């Protein structure tokens, strides 16, 4: 009886659980690359992971293109000391991926310490076999 119950539970769990596809894994890795490049203020890394047509929306409503986004991170105007991501979901449709997560972190924008607690929508596009960030919009939680 116990074995039957355990077997049924495992079967039920396997129906609920879903393995990540290769693209979902690649998008998750791209998100982590972006997170690390932002914390490290890595200009080359930021330029490599973002699309030329990037539209980067802040929770304040400010929108930056790729050059302005990279410049703000590299110069410390937008300085992330730490970024933690939670509750991430990834949805893929052909060459587009939508990523939603909660972002918390420590900042030091223009030398002013602060914290952030945001919801974020990232839009990724597969370009020449690589996932590139093409859109981002944050909102205050």
TrEMBL record:
InterPro entries: DUF4440, NTF2-like_dom_sf. Pfam families: DUF4440 (PF14534). Residues 27-133 form the DUF4440 domain. This is DUF4440 domain-containing protein. The keyword Signal applies. Keywords: Signal. Coiled coil: none annotated. Residues 1-19 form the signal peptide. The keyword Signal applies.
